[in-house]
Amino acid sequence: MLEDEQKLVKKAKDGEVEAFGLLYDHYLPKIYRFVLLKVSHREEAEDLTHQAFLKAWENIDQYNFKGYSFGSWLYRIAKNITVDYYRSLRTEVSTEEISELSVESFPFGSLDQKIEWEGLVQGIRQLKEVEQDVLIMRFVEDLSPKEIAEVIGKSEGAVKVIQHRAVNNLKKVIEKTGEK
Amino acid sequence: MKEIELIKNLRSLKSISPRAEYASHSKMVILSFQRKLHPQWEIVGRGVLAESFNFGLSMVLTAVILVLILGGATSLLRPIFLNNLPGVDAEGLITEADTITKDIDIQLSEAEYYAVTAKETSVALKETSLNGPAHVNPLLIQNEIKTLDFENPKNSNIDDLLNKLSQ
Q1: Which member of B13, B14, B27 has the closest CB to residue A21?
Q2: Do B7 and A171 touch (CB under 8 A)?
Q3: Domain limits, chain A
Q4: What ipTM did this prediction achieve?
Q5: Would you say domain A109-179 falls under CATH 2.10.10.90?
Q6: What does the pLDDT look like over B93-122, one tens digit per residue?
Q7: Which family does it belong to (chain A) (predicted)?
Q8: The whole model's pTM is what?
């Protein structure tokens, strides 16, 4: 969590643009990664991340600490926005077209990294939505099970079970893809 | 693939970051958006002072409700409404109320009179039923008429009575 995060949130609530700017700088890479791994398309990820922050800024009055970090609240907004995105896509684009959106948009360094990430991202996308969320937040973003539980609206115990199942399923999917 | 290796690969995705150009442009657009503030409740809704104010306000409101219920809202609100409501003739209302009060007093005194009369009547009827209607017996009345003889100018009884009176 960002140091003095709650003070910044209070200032942002009072209309201090700079305070929200600091929160934006801290959380942008995290939220962007989360969205990009879910949609696998750079431009879409940029649009959706922008929407998420705009929504957060508009509705910051509705955020109350009560033990929930501001980051958890942001992830929840981003998660809901990606759900809406897929819902709208289902009516416009076929599932095959969606799966074609791949790691081409990713800023990889080498060819090896590209191959590695391609398999990983394709594997993540074959998991259930909740498993995707837990894997990304737990291993890419280093969120605690408690924080993840806040975002997905489940208990800590349930998060640990989902995490275990998600890792096993991802392993199976990647091995299966490798065999082909 | 081993689980540790898989997790290590997942962690390598952390190096993904947004384009600097996108980040600065998006930030500028978001922060230029004018957020609607709620000044009244923003001030009241925060801090220890605000909490104590809210508590005090709730206590005052509770007290007012209790006074209205126990003390009678009508007597408290009457002068306010009479003085403040436009188109209401306060003096006329008071005169009407006085007239109604007087009418009620008159009707009450009549009711008292009827109650006394009814009692006397019932006593008389009771006596009559016990003694019998002797005074309305036609034979007795005829005898009394003969005894008095009002027609006769030389009725000695009358003369005697007049003499007694003149003495």
Answers
A1: B27
A2: no
A3: 1-99, 109-179
A4: 0.82
A5: no
A6: 888 888 888 888 888 888 888 877 888 888
A7: Belongs to the sigma-70 factor family. ECF subfamily.
A8: 0.59
